[in-house]
Amino acid sequence: MAEQRRYRPLASTRQLEKTMTRYYALTRYHRLWGRPLRRPLAWVTSGAPVELLLAFNIHPVYPENYGAICGTRKVSAKLCKVAEAAGYSQDLCSYARSHIGSIMRPDLAPMGGLPRPDLLVACNNICGTVLKWYEALARIFNVPLLVLDTPYLPGEVTGHAVGYVHEQLKEMAADLEKITGRRFDARGLEKRLLLSKETISLWREIREFCRAEPSPLNAPDLFIHMAPIVVLRGTKQSLKYYRQLRDEVKHRVDQGLGAVENEKIRLVWDNIAIWYRLFAFFKDFSQRGACFVTDTYSGGWAVELSPGDPLESLASTYTEIFLNRSLEFRARQMIDLIKDFNAHGFVMHSNRSCKPYSLVQEVIRRQVMRETGVPGLMVEADMADSRVFANEPVKNRVQAFIETLEA
Amino acid sequence: MLQQVKNKNLNDSIGEEKLELLLEEASLNGSRRRERYPDSRFFGYFCSYWPEEIVLAAGYEPLRLFPAPIQAVPASLPAYCCSLARGCLSRAEKGDYADLAGTGFAHTCDTMQCLGGIWQAVAGHVDNTLQCVPPVLLEAPGARRYYLTELQNLLSKIGRLTGREPGKIDLIRALDLCRQIRRQAAELDKMRPYLPSPLVPALLRAGQVMPGTEFSAALERVIPVLKERMAEPGDRCRVLVTGAVLENDSLFKMVEDLGGRVVADDMCTGYRHYYDQLSQPDTPDPLEAIVQRAANMPPCPCRSRGHDYRINYLEQLALEKNAAGAVLVIRKYCEPHAWDAVPAAEQLRKSGIRTMVLELEGADVGGQERTRLQAFLESI
């Protein structure tokens, strides 16, 4: 007999697929339209100030998103091995390894790999790895590399840090003028920021709906439906998509429909998804009525833009990204999520590939448990490289954790 | 004449004594600082970008923190982080650093960024853990101005620990001492090809774990003695070593034992720590001088002066020192060095320099490394 489904699929998923397929089709055939339309293709990090690039008519492509695709399609391990054979250590980020592997062996890679970039844009607000990763890419492709250095914030955001980033953004705009042959269009940037702002506002609204009991969304929904806000941030397509998603999620809340049937346990997720086990992993929870009502990862794209003139706004927004903040900030964020979403516990993915996210988690876990009184589980894995995932020990720990919550 | 000979013998014997002292300090790595320097108050740090001048200006002695030889595994850190972070944190948790006036974290890699927060939260150093975030892009627009403000803030923070913010005169004195030490270190670095491989790294490390004035005074006596001991390396295989932190000289000793000679080093704990291109900075402002030096140092992989700058620097260093081989040391889980190892090895090999990438759990080398190093040196 077939296993009973405990999980409610979203109708918007079809529109999501259409939106993403169109984006990747455009990306794939960039060689046909990019040059005639004078729209260079840039590979950018997920925390880069993409609105500035869009203002220059640049088509942004996200190797990190591609890394997640490789993970979901379960080809990362194969691609990582290719990079490892070329000397890249197995201890390096698996997004980076699988991406470099896809450049070396496009025949093994989804969509035959990403199309060659005209330029590279990296911002180190998410980790130090991106700087090294993009340096490697710059050597491979011999194309311009623009780096935005957003100083780590051990405490509150400081004026001199934002001022430094602002200075660099001005230079980046001047560099982009030279690269694209277009003048910096401040009004164009404002328009892009407005689109981002509206999209962020919708994404926030969607996430806020998950305070409802039962929650209309579960973590896999958040991870899958965050794709447009990552790769299409600052565009009309993403705005259109999130309007539709918002309406569907609102409808679920109005109707009292939960993502997980008979929601009994509400949880918070911390860290990037385990892409190659996305549904299998969360199924162990949803089958027991446990729903991940919010998370820290996809919430990274729900932070409102800072006020100020466009470049100033970009400077502080992109410096204040949560991964660029202190352990204390991160702990406070987790505590707030647990309280705001009335969560009974939380699960942390100790992600071997993402040190800035993961190394502080154990201290945060203890602090959050102390301050909220809810239990937290640590699961060691990797976001894309399935070779380090030990299914049985993880399953046992998950079961024991859920039993604790059920008791 | 007799008096001259007597003086020389006396100087030699003092020099020998001081050499022994420095080697002892290097082997202790600051572990017996309390009994050896009871009048000094030490301030811990991890990274060569940490502005030692500010620590000295505040009246403290900078102490580079190294992990214990026997590693414990602190519960606060996962197993997949480097033994430097794990080893130092476990020492902090045990109370080994309770006597320190404070600990300074200069932002470098993701691991150190995290360790700074954990240190405050776990190791009981809430108020005296100071963080300083130098720019990653040392030549970016606004970088110098930003770093200057960061240093001014650090000065205020350290002032809150001592009860008095160090003034300009304190800073100038500290700078003078650092410059003197850096000049001496440069002299040692020049002598390196003519001295046994482990000697210079040990002396350079001693300077990071003992009071600066004592170190400089001892070196003043030691350098003439070493000059007399200098000998042509003969047919020893000339090697460059680059990497992050090495808390002992085990690797250098092995290179020497196997017939090699380390003629150049680009270790965080080696000459890179002391590098000072400007004998006289072109600014009267001491903080500006610190900024200038940081911008001119050979960058570690966590900083950037253009994506090929460091790789070109390593190649040039190897060629200048006439190195026939290069050992790229990666501490397990150290991502920045692991990243750079790929292009560095490629470029060095293209320049005709035999290159090996050596991954180590800590600083100790054992049988496996011996076999690899032997084969490597024999192949040159």
Structural overview:
The complex is a heterodimer of chains A (407) and B (380). With 407 residues, chain A is of the alpha/beta class. Chain A has one domain (12-406): Rossmann fold. Chain A is 52% helix and 10% strand. Chain A has helices spanning 12-28, 30-33, 50-55, 63-72, 76-85, 94-104, 129-141, 159-180, 186-208, 219-225, 227-231, 236-255, 278-286, 310-319, 327-340, 355-358, 361-372, 391-406; strands spanning 41-44, 59-61, 119-123, 145-148, 265-270, 290-295, 345-351, 376-381. A four-stranded parallel beta sheet of chain A has the order 2-1-3-4, with helices on both faces. Chain A is globular, with a radius of gyration of 21 Å. The mean pLDDT of chain B is 94. In chain B, helix 1 crosses helix 9, helix 6 (143-162) crosses helix 11 and helix 12 crosses helix 13 (335-350). In chain B, helix 5 links the parallel strand 3 (103-106) and strand 4 (129-132). The chains are: A alpha/beta (407), B alpha/beta (380). Chains A and B meet through helix 7, helix 8, helix 16 and helix 17 of A and helix 5, helix 6 and helix 13 of B.
* Poorly predicted runs of 5 or more residues of chain B: none
Helix content of chain B: 40-55%
**Oligomer description:** heterodimer
* Total tally of structural domains of chain A: 1
For the sheet with most strands of chain A, the description reads:
4 strands, parallel
Number of E-type strands of chain B: 8
SS-based structural class of chain B? alpha/beta
Biggest sheet of chain B: strands, sense, closure?
A: 4 strands, parallel
Structural class of chain A: alpha/beta
Distance between the termini of chain A: 29 Å
- Contiguous low-pLDDT stretches of chain A (5 residues minimum) are none
Strand content of chain B: 5-15%
User: What sequence of helices (H) and strands (E) makes up the elements of chain B?
Assistant: HHEHEHEHEHHHHEHEHHEHEH
How would you write the strand order of the largest sheet of chain A?
Answer: 2-1-3-4
Percent of residues in helices of chain A comes to: 40-55%
Strand content of chain A: 5-15%
Question: What's the pLDDT, averaged over the residues of chain B?
Answer: 94
Globular, elongated, flat, extended or rod-shaped: what is the shape of chain B?
Answer: globular
Distinct helical segment count of chain B: 14
